[in-house]
Design brief:
- The protein has about 80 residues and is mostly helical.
- It contains 2 helices and no strands.
- Helix 1 packs antiparallel against helix 2.
- The longest helix is centred in the C-terminal third of the chain and has 45 residues.
- The chain starts with a helix and ends with a helix.
Length: about 80
């Protein structure tokens, strides 16, 4: 269950980062583009986006580790050796 929370939070941050990039795009398309204001906002969007990707990677890695642990336990049970 906790993997799903990380994954949902990761997708939410990725979406928020993309929304911030969209806001930067809209700011730059105005008749008088505000370049100095869009720079820091683009950096903030990049940080949010990368944070979301990191949470997604952690959630997938944790799920893979849990799956590998279950397979190792089942293989140990088939052999008949328990620590």
């Amino acid at each position: 269950m906790r993997f799903w929370v990380r994954e949902l939070a990761g997708w939410a941050l990725v979406g928020l980062g993309l929304f911030v990039f969209y806001v930067v795009y809209i700011i730059l398309l105005q008749p008088a583009p505000r370049i100095l204001e869009s720079g820091p906002l683009a950096f903030i969007g990049f940080i949010i986006f990368r944070g979301g990707i990191h949470l997604l990677k952690v959630a997938v890695a944790a799920r893979i580790c849990l799956y590998a642990h279950k397979q190792a336990e089942s293989a140990r049970a088939r052999v008949g050796t328990t620590p």
